[in-house]
Structure formats: C-alpha cells, structure tokens
Design goal:
This protein is of the alpha+beta class and 190 residues long. It has six helices and eleven strands. The protein has one domain: Jelly Rolls (Sandwich). Strands 1, 2, 3, 4, 6, 7, 8, 9 and 10 form a nine-stranded antiparallel β-sheet that branches. The chain has a two-stranded antiparallel sheet with strand order 5-11. The protein starts with a strand and ends with a helix.
C-alpha cells in the first residue's frame, strides 16, 4: 500500500501525519508541486523482462507524458534482492540531492521510497506498483530502495543524458528512517 508520512525536519522520530489513501496522498503532494498518480498495471511481464518489453507495455502512458511534459528520454531500472551491486546502487541515491529537471518514476513492480525535504517538512513517500511520482526540479530529496531492493521502474527525462544529481552536502538523509525490506522483496528471497 502506498504511504505518505510527514515529519518536521528537526524531528525524525515524530510523524506529524500519515496518509494511505491514494487520492489523499496525491492531493497533499500536489500542495508542494509533486505529481502522484496511480496507473493501471494490467501487463503481466515475465520476470527479467527486457527494457524494450517494459516500455512497450506502457507505451501509451509514456507517449502521453512525453507529449504533455516534453520528456526526451525513457529507460527502465530494475533491481532484485540478489543483485551483486545492490548496496552500491542504493548508496548512490541515499544522500540529499536535487536535479535540474523533474525526477519522474513509474513503478511497474515492487517498491521504492522517495523522501522530499520541502521547507521545514520531510515527506516520506512509499511508492508501490502502479505509482507514478514526479518530483519537481530543484526539490531536495533522496531515494531508498532498501537493503534488499525489488523494483522495476520506468524513468522519464527531459535531459537525454538521463539521471544527473547535484548533492547538497547536507546530512539530513542520515537522520530519517530508511526503507525497510518490502514484502515483495521478501517473497523473492523465500
């Protein structure tokens, strides 16, 4: 279940608000300029489906977003709990950073956690299968996939070079909860 937890940026142990209703999450995130949608995921993709197969399955939605927002590049990132470089991949995204373009992800399978630092609040967004999140350019944030990651996500970019981050150097991300291992990852490990 998708979830939004809101904290004061000075109190990582005190949840100010928690929402699990998708419409309520989308409305609250819209207040800070974040797009949060639920897409249907009717396509049964085989385990380990190629990037081309994943993109083809969601081509109509991708085309709609590219046309509306001017995205020029699309790719797929996929990680499983047994990936030999999972710790290095996780570490890459755990520090607070910004981008000069929106960060757009659609979760085809599995889950990941975006944490946004806006003003004096921290918004922890657990994204699951079917969730699309678009974090506006310049928004301070970090991403966690847990120590046993499992997700397949479509990424859309206006910059054809793909993911380019500018790290803030602030240690705030180290003070907030990390994403626990998600049930979908535990099923793969069983």
């Amino acid at each position: 279940m998708s979830r939004l937890r809101i904290y004061n940026d000075q109190n990582p142990s005190g949840i100010v608000d928690e929402l699990t209703d998708h419409a309520a999450i989308a409305a609250r995130l819209a207040e800070i300029g974040v797009r949060f949608e639920q897409w249907a995921t009717p396509h049964a993709l085989p385990p380990g489906a190629s990037q081309e197969a994943v993109i083809a399955a969601y081509q109509a939605d991708i085309d709609r977003l590219c046309s509306a927002e001017g995205y020029q590049a699309v790719d797929v990132v996929s990680l499983r709990p047994d990936h030999p470089q999972r710790a290095a991949f996780r570490e890459k995204f755990l520090d607070e950073h910004t981008h000069s373009e929106d960060e757009v992800r659609f979760f085809v399978e599995g889950a990941g956690q975006f944490t946004l630092h806006v003003g004096h609040q921290v918004f922890e967004v657990l994204c699951e299968q079917g969730d699309l999140i678009s974090v506006p350019d310049g928004t301070r944030h970090w991403f966690d996939m847990s120590e046993s990651p499992y997700f397949v996500a479509i990424r859309l970019f206006t910059n054809p070079e793909g993911w380019v981050a500018s790290f803030t150097g602030e240690p705030i991300a180290t003070r907030f909860p990390r994403m626990p291992v998600h049930p979908s990852a535990l099923q793969l490990l069983a």
